[in-house]
Amino acid sequence: MGVYTEILADQRPFTIGVDDSDRHEIVCNFSASSDGDLNSWEDDLATLIINAGLGTFPTTISNGDLFIGPKAAPQGDGPFTVITDTGGVAVNETRSDVTYEHPSAQVMVTGRSFTDTRTRALAIWRALRVRNITIT
After folding, report:
1. Fewer CB within 10 A of the end CB, N or C, for the chain?
2. 48-60 residue pLDDT tens
């Protein structure tokens, strides 16, 4: 669970090419600020994506389209979404001893159809721009 003062899209989704299976890859980078300890940043982003109806975790090896970590999307047409932590920037502390963490992540959508892949990436980009939210 994370408490965020904001989650921001660092840029509009953009194409980075095609993978080895000739599937389109569209990415967007996100950053956030939180005045709490964040131990579940990627999971929190996944929760927002799931709650927006834009992805599901796999419950078996053959279903689901949302993955966490620096691994390739599974074989298939997709679109598939992969969330990878990208480190963020340094913590800052205020005079009142409040510590702010600033994580970042890349969300990549991969799919055979450019239109479907771009549509999913844009929908995620719009869904993840939030302020003052607690994710459970």
Report:
1. C
2. 999 999 999 887 6
